[in-house]
Amino acid sequence: METNAFMESQEVKDFNKKIEKDELGPLWNAIPELVSKEPAQHAEPYLWKGSVIKEHLMEATKIFTPERGGERRAIYLQNPKMKDREPWGWGAATQNIYAAVQLILPGEEAPSHRHKQSALRFIMEGEGAYSIVDGERLFMNEGDFVVTPQECWHGHGHEGEEPMLWMDVLDIPFIYSIGGSFFEGYPEEGVQKPERADNYSPNHYQGGLVRPIKDRKPKKAPVGTYKWQQTKEALDGLEEFDPDVYDGHAVEFINPTTGDTANVNIASWMQRLPVGFRGKAHRHTNSSVVHVHSGSGYSVIDGVKFEWEKGDFFVIPSWSWHEHVNTGDEAVHLFSVHDTPIMETFNLQHEEEYKDGHQEVNSVFQP
Ligand SMILES: [Fe+2]
Ligand SMILES: [Fe+2]
Question: Cupin type-2 domain: from which residue to which, for each copy (predicted)?
């Protein structure tokens, strides 16, 4: 907006100060920023090394033991541009998405609870741990995707041999900003006891292809676990087709009963960038958090090069130009989450292609 000398004058400043004392605000000065021409970027592009997070989590195992009462041993990605928000930086990786890494040791349990926030998990390392969701134990292995819908009781346990690491994603900052949080601890101590057979829903639904004949009513998320082998086969099937120019070969996890996204507020994808893939740049109003499941390469976000490898995480803020490149000699797998369902619900989803296809790289990101 053009600067208007009068709006910066002493007369205006004095008047603004005067109304401020009565808890009132001057729209004439506020409007260009409050009703911005384009989406304001609440978050900034950022990258976290997986190795750094893991090191902190291993140290945390010695400090934060289950007996000491913490609900969860998880370290979240705090977007530097949002860390001053009270309380706790809103747990914001982007303005709507919370993303963390949780570590559970063999024999440990994380007590059951439920909340209005809906959760999803992506298993980074290990095997033998389970999430118990509304009385059903879902065993998790590397590459599996797990949903814990809003208001479902959930806790975790670990019957394996090695530390287990997974990515947790919730709509915490979004729910916080609109004032919708409710939380409840399970009425009994510890983890809920199993009430049905282990892996009941993934076995009965076979990845969403069929359903039990007595189970015809739509459900929040009937499948619970999406096994890596099935996701991989879905991507293998796409290999003979041209990849998407921006995202490579990519699939979204869905609720097979409704066809909607698997988690109501946050869409989850598995993307494969073939060897030599160089994606074009685009931007959209939804923000994204990306986890590198395998391979190496870089993304250019708003002219800055973010180099990544297996285990790393990075954030693509709303309305930031971005493009992805595979520089390795194997296919890259990216697990990514997007607040697209929120933006679509409020009719705010917009996308735009970058006119020259690729951005100029101005600098290389250093954490
Ligand atoms: Fe939870
Ligand atoms: Fe994108």
Answer: 102-169, 270-337
Ligand nearest to the backbone CA of 340: 2
Is the CB of residue 356 less than 8 Å from the CB of residue 320? no
Sequence-distant (6+) residues with CB within 8 A of 265 are 96, 118, 171, 174, 339, 341, 342
C-alpha 64/C-alpha 74 separation (Å) is 10
Phi, psi of 140 (to 5 degrees): -125, 140
Question: What tokens were used for 218?
Answer: 């739509």
Ligand nearest to the CA of 288: 2
Residues 164 and 102: beta-carbon distance below 8 Å: no
Q: Residue 188 Cα, ligand 2 centroid: separation in angstroms?
A: 43
pLDDT tens for 107-160 read 999 999 999 999 999 999 999 999 999 999 999 999 999 999 999 999 999 999
User: So what's the architecture of 46-364 in CATH?
Assistant: Sandwich (2.60)
List Cβ neighbours of 17 (8 Å cut-off, separation of 6 or more): none
What string of DSSP letters covers 41-60? -SS--EEE-HHHHHHHHHHH
Is this model's pTM higher than 0.90 or not? yes
